[in-house]
Amino acid sequence: MGGASDAVSFTGGGELPSAYPVTDLAAASIAAASLALSELLSTAIDHSPAVTVDRRLASMWFGMSIRPMGWKLPPVWDAFAGDYRTHDGWIKLHTNAPHHRAAAMRVLGNHPDRASMAGAVATWNATDLETAIVGEGGCAAAMRSAVEWADHPQGRAVAGEPLAHRRLHDSAPLKNWNIAPERPLKGLRVLDLTRVLAGPVATRFLACFGADVLRIDPPNWDEPAVVQEVTLGKRCARLDLHHINDRKIFKELLSQAHVLVHGYRPTALDRLGLDAATRRAIAPGLVDVSLDAYGWTGPWATRRGFDSLVQMSSGIADAGMHWREADAPVPLPVQALDHATGYLMATLVLRGVTQRLRNGRGSEARVSLARTAKPLMEASATPEPAELAPETDADHSPMIEKTPWGDARRIRPPLHIEGAPMSWDYPATRLGSNEPRWS
Fold first, then answer.
1. Helices 336-359 & 307-314, crossing angle to 10 degrees?
2. d(CA 285, CA 81)
3. Is cis: bond before 431, omega within 30 of 0?
4. 250 vs 50: CA distance, rounded Å
5. Which end of the chain is more exposed for a tag (fewer CB within 10 A), N or C?
6. C-beta separation of 48 from 92 below 8 A
């Protein structure tokens, strides 16, 4: 970042209760993205604007930022999702998506309720059940300790990876886009192929500084528990990339994009004829940023996963159990791996855009939830941290957000960049509510 790191200051007190310094992670990751934006701004105004991050508000944005007025958010978890005791330990089943629930049921049988499912799970060894459900295309994670993860082939692979894989590509100067200091990303076209939760956090950050974010989802996909949270500032359309006509539309959108952010599993786009080289040919100079769950090397590089599963695999939930002296897994108080990875992705996008402005070179970057977990697990939590002060109405933005579900307010922005306020051009919206075209 050069001299930009000298331009950040932190305010706000208190800590999220955890075996790990989650509030530190929240503040630091938001600061990283903010400093990258400050550096981008410095190319237009000859100095790096000052950045202030409120640790307390950052902690709150790592949870849910939306506050419904007279209506309720849907449940976060499917009725069968969660932690189950096995014959020899614990396992988490992630069944929020219907096809993931179906995969678990193919292994465990169809069950009318959670209690019945628990009885079936209890007859299995944790790692055997994990292997069986993953083999069926589902999502599950046996609970491991940090020591067990460090000895696991995937744990060793992730430990050997950088926090972000990054490489530059051939020059293609960024044309027809100029930075407006008060709305620095206005006119930057970001094509968003991400789902819960890290990728949408990244593109939400970009949208809140003016980027034209167009999110593309397949037909019938929905994220009812988080769509109100993560579509803020975006337009959302649908395309089926398995169909040639929709793929043609996508390629046209990509040819006009400055940035592509995607969270499909490794090789998924390749199988659609949209490998990295093809994407660069369609959009020379593209800033291409992607993520996966378990890392880009090792035996689990293509494994489906989510924040809560990585916490179980990597030892976080086990450490939380011992920290709280509990008899069941204790996850982080928020989906911190998702959010921190999202802000890291936003950082890489902004660094890529700055690089392209300076020398015309495009870039490709890759991150993972499992690698984001590593520095958190290596950090020491405050022995007896002060709790965050209770939320009050003063924590809410005065602006009323008119969403399709009803009026809402947001937690006030967790950061301030001198001369470039964080705001959004569109309220949260339903997936598929817009046409697949640039504004």
1. 110
2. 42
3. no
4. 38
5. C
6. no
